[in-house]
Specification:
Elements (H helix, E strand, L loop, with lengths): L22 H17 L5 H33 L5 H26 L9 H20 L3 H29 L5 H26 L3 H22 L16 H6 L9 H22 L1 H9 L7 H29 L3 H20 L3 H28 L4 H33 L5 H19 L8
Helix pairs in contact: 2-5, 2-6, 2-7, 3-5, 3-14, 4-5, 4-7, 5-14, 6-7, 6-11, 6-13, 9-14, 9-15, 11-13, 12-13, 12-15
Length: about 450
Amino acid sequence: MNAPDNRPPVPSGGAFPIGSATAAEDIEHLAAAATEDTNRPKVSKSFITLLALGLFGTYLAFVTPIAISLAIRVDALAPNNDEYLGVILGFGSLAALLFSPLGGQLSDRTRSRWGRRKPWLIGGVLVGLVGLTVMAASPAVLGLGLGWVIAQIGLNQTVNTFGTIQADKLPENQRGKVGAITGFATMVAPVFGAVVGGMVGNQPFILFLAPGAVALALVLVFIAYYKDADSRHLTFDSPLTAKVVISKYVFNPKRYPDFAWNWLGRFLFFFGLTLNTTYTAFFFSERLNIPVDEIGATVATVGGIGILGTIAGVFLGGFLSDKLRRRKAFVLGSGILFGIGALVMVVAPDLTLLLVGSLLCNISIGVFSAVDQALFLDVLPERDTEAGRFVNIIQLANVSAQAIAPFAAAAVLALLAAGDRYAVIFVAAAVFTVAGGLVILKVKGVR
């Protein structure tokens, strides 16, 4: 789609006010947002397709290490030290936690003939490829972890920039639908990654760089198609000093309460999800008595069946939430369903019931990924001037959860030297995802 060549309004460089908004201001803000969404033109099918493909490629490179590749390499480089996996994932997420908000602020202020967003798409994926190369070449766990830190910073920035583009372009009545399509793309990417991991687990360069090459190709296709407005004319009220940068890493929840509740609900859900997924390969290996370096094919099979649940979840949730103009009930339901699925996996005596639990979790993730994305776009503050900043702040909910949860899981494994250690982690995952769904009920501006 050739995006309308409307120049974005001149952003303000200052941090947003600390004072709490009044009820009248809240109503005025919601009314203004509704008018803005009504006037925002619909995006084309081509835009949606290429957006989904770009996200698919990025997630293929980004999530495959989390799903399978890192587990395979940790087991190869440091046998019987599976707690290293949680430490590596945790440090990668901490790095993204520090750099992502800065990237969002710089994106909002980027002045180039290619617009504000394109440079950050290509820059992010190139940095990600550097990190993946370091991981593939590393002969030790330390190098593997360093590579993951670099890859996480770059690929996380690309994901966040795609989110900012959606905030820039999508009208309210397309957010659920686009969330469904892009959510499906990001959910099936790890399954394809698991297939690659199962086939080339002993070939680290292919294991890490094949998904990276796909990401680069699909992001370049989107960049070639997407027409962003020339941003060289932009001016700002104040320079982006270190003080301003640091102040914009946070926001005032009293001024943006709906955004704050959505942030907390997302954090809790992703904390539970990360607890569940960090040690999935080891959990399946233990339950099915299959060596970790041979579990890739089983994980891929489970993931392949899970695609059915993901398809049902993203499209049922995303399209219905647009049609019914309801978001919160779907998000709550997804949290509860994930909790049920995790508990089913805990009590599963064999592969059949593990498949059932995994399928329920996949349905839940599909619903959540589509509908919560639409919900956060509905409540996103300062959409025209600071979309990049607030998109990166909401992504901090994901990243901080992904940073803390692996350390928490690794601590549980270290403390519980014996017994069903992975069951404890999966039960905790169920508790946090249900809590995430319940918190969303506090959002007032969206039904």
